[in-house]
Each structure stands twice: as C-alpha cells, then as structure tokens.
Amino acid sequence: MEKETYNILLNKLRTRLTKQWTKFSEPISPEERLLITLRYFASGNSFKALSYYFLRGPTSNRRIVHETSQVIWELLQPEYMPIPTTNKWIEVENRFYDLWNLPNCIGAVDGKHIMIQCPPRSGSAYYNYKGYYSIVLQGVVDADSMFICIDIGELGRNSDGRVLKESSFGNALAHGNLNLPEPSPLPGEEINFPFYYVGDEAYALTKNFMKPYTRNQLTNERRMLIIVFHVVANQWSVHSEC
C-alpha cells in the first residue's frame, strides 16, 4: 500500500480508532492499530508472529485486528460496497451485455474456500470436499470482476448452493428484496425476460438465477454458453485471489 493511500484510509478511520487516555496507560495510536491490521491482512502471520514486529502481546494484536476490521467494514462498506439500487443493476447489465454478450445479466456468483485451522470441538463442520478445513467466501461480481456483494463465514462442508441459500444475499434474492429492475425483452424479442445472475452447476436454476447446462445435456450450440460461464467464473477466481 502506498503511503498516500494509507493516509487516506487512516483519516477515514482515525476518529473510531482513537482510544481514551487513562491515568494508568497510554492508548495504542490509530496509526499503529491500522498498521497491525494491514500487516495481518497482507501476511497472514499469526498474532504471535506479529508481536515480534510491533512489540505487542498476541492477545492485544488479536483484539486490535478484530476491532479495526469491524471499523473498516462499518465505515467503508456504505461507500465502496453499498446496497445496489435499481439503476446500479441496470449499469451492471449494460456492461455484461457489452463485454460478455449476456443480456439481462446482473452478476456472476461463486464461492471461494478460505483455508483455516480446524476450530476446537467443531468436528467435520468446516471440512470441505477439497480435503482441508475452510470457511466460504461467496461473492457477486460485475462484468469486470469487481465485487458487488460478499458473504463470508459459511461452513466449509456446505455446497455453493447451500451457502447461497443461507446467505443474506440469497435470502434477499428469494424474497425479492434486491431492487432488481422489472423484466425486459431480450434483444430481438418482445416477451419480457427477468434479470438474472449466473453461476456454475452447483447452484439451483431459478427465476433470477441461470446456470450452465449439465455435461450430459451438451450440444455444440450449448457449449458456447458454457465457455462464457467458465470465462466469467475464472475472472472472478483470479480477482478473489488477488
């Protein structure tokens, strides 16, 4: 992170990260709190390892990262990842049509397993089909692989379809609370068609969710649509790993 970017972020968070002085101790400065958190994000080191860099105890580092992360989300989410409006969905659809030739498409959905250590007394709840323990990051991205919505923390053993169903985004989609545009005709057609999201075979086919044909139903014409789905999914995967 460049120094200028760090200062911009610090200025946004400073008020919430400033702690009160007491007669017994000097509070940890907002600058150090943000540095500890960014170091943890960038390196993935343990809190004990961070203690050697900042000369703070592991317990203090854990508390600082937790508190600062919460502040970052609460202050930046409304600005950088607000709940999309109807006009925003229409902008996303226009970009999908221009870039991927997918009319009425307003987002691509997929899940990413984040490796973790097995939590105590959790059994196999976090053990995924890939053979390790994880939580799931589910993302909805636009045509340029930029996040629109995210949901983090589902058990690693759950399928993508289950994660979507249990997420706040999935619940809002099921109950019609996402401010989606009214159905409109596809290019060259007259019948109204609903706006939809795209995902892989792990998801259920619904009114507002499209998925590719299963492999045993493929024809040469259908393969072209499969290629588009996989290109969009690969773009999302590269973006999430970065």
Automatic annotation (TrEMBL):
Subcellular location: Nucleus
Entry's Gene Ontology molecular function annotations: hydrolase activity; metal ion binding; nuclease activity
Keyword Transit peptide found: no
Cofactor requirements of the protein: a divalent metal cation
Predominant localisation class: nucleus
Keywords tagged on the record: Hydrolase, Metal-binding, Nuclease, Nucleus
GO annotation, cellular component aspect: nucleus
Signal peptide range: none
Metal-binding recorded as keyword: yes
Domain called DDE Tnp4: residue spans: 109-222
PANTHER family according to UniProt: NUCLEASE HARBI1-LIKE PROTEIN, PTHR22930
Family: Belongs to the HARBI1 family.
Name of the protein described by the UniProt record: DDE Tnp4 domain-containing protein
Organism: Parnassius mnemosyne
